[in-house]
Design goal:
By secondary structure, this protein is of the alpha/beta class. The chain has a domain at 57-241: 3-Layer(aba) Sandwich (Rossmann fold). It contains 12 helices and 7 strands. A 5-stranded parallel beta sheet has the order 3-4-5-2-6. Strands 1-7 form a two-stranded antiparallel sheet. Strand 4 (168-172), helix 10 and strand 5 form a beta-alpha-beta unit. Helix 4 (57-67) crosses helix 7 (116-130). It starts with a helix and ends in a 30-residue tail after the last strand. The model is unreliable at 47-55 and 261-269 (pLDDT under 50).
């Protein structure tokens, strides 16, 4: 449907209005509008001026693999019929990426299976399309990478990669595990150094008020978390796990290209 809407006449009109760079992010805006059944009067809300600063579309496929973004987690593939609830106006604001321009953060919080990781990756894809540099990493793998970097004397390089090398850092499943003193210090450094200098998206099953208990050093934790939460948009998602829909059953058709095998019948002897 998107390809039908973005016609040659529309492209020519946008370029004539000096909005040609808007074409790089227009597919996501059209998808967002369609998923939320927005009226023509509401549509300009999801096409803010910030979206006009799009980047080179060809470069997206270079940036996205480096960012470790899942190609199956784009806005076009989000199932709008999922039985989850969240603040749609806030989501539209996050999708505009104005928070990245302002070096603010986002916390996507909710129970298991409601799409937190999906929405975080979606924002990562939009950021790549806009021209921002992105890095997506699971919280436990981030901690392990820093631990190993200490052993092979690449710690400063690894820390710099997380703090200064990207415009948007996405940390998945944050605040789930208890941190020892060294891990607490590492997490403190990342949250503290990216404060007002770069954006972070975290996904978590726990709210920010519960993160304090996971740090071994309460003083550092309070300092870092206070900075983070007071510069963060909180997107709370509630609902049932989407994975229930993906549970296999005898009625589930085989995946595309997959052939069904004839069932062997056991003979009674």
């Amino acid at each position: 449907m998107t390809s039908e809407v973005i016609t040659a006449d529309l492209k020519a009109t946008l370029r004539r209005l000096k909005l040609g760079r808007l074409l790089d992010t227009l597919p996501e805006r059209l998808t967002l509008a369609r998923q939320q059944a927005l009226t023509p009067q509401d549509f300009p809300v999801v096409v803010p001026p910030a979206a006009a600063a799009g980047g080179n579309p060809a470069a997206v496929w270079t940036r996205a693999p480096r960012a470790h973004l899942d190609p199956a987690m784009t806005l076009e593939q989000w199932d709008a019929t999922a039985k989850v609830t969240y603040d749609r106006a806030l989501w539209n604001e996050l999708a505009s990426l104005r928070f990245v321009d302002a070096h603010a953060h986002a916390a996507i919080v909710g129970p298991v299976g409601v799409g937190k990781t999906f929405l975080a990756h979606t924002l990562g894809w939009i950021a790549c399309r806009k021209g921002a540099s992105v890095l997506c990493v699971a919280a436990d793998k981030m901690i392990k990478a820093l631990r190993h970097a200490r052993l092979d004397h690449t710690y400063e390089q690894e820390l710099r990669r997380l703090i200064a090398a990207v415009d948007l850092l996405i940390v998945d499943d944050f605040g789930l595990d208890s941190l020892d003193p060294t891990e607490s210090r590492d997490t403190y450094e990342i949250l503290n150094e990216r404060h007002r200098s770069g954006s972070i998206i975290v996904t978590s099953n726990r709210g920010p008020d519960e993160w304090l208990a996971t740090f071994a050093d309460p003083l550092r934790a309070q300092s870092a978390i206070d900075r983070f939460v007071n510069n963060t948009y909180d997107l709370v998602i509630d609902g049932e796990s989407y994975r229930k829909r993906q549970k296999p059953s005898l009625d589930t058709p085989p995946a595309s290209g997959e052939k069904t095998k004839p069932k062997r019948r056991r003979l009674n002897r």
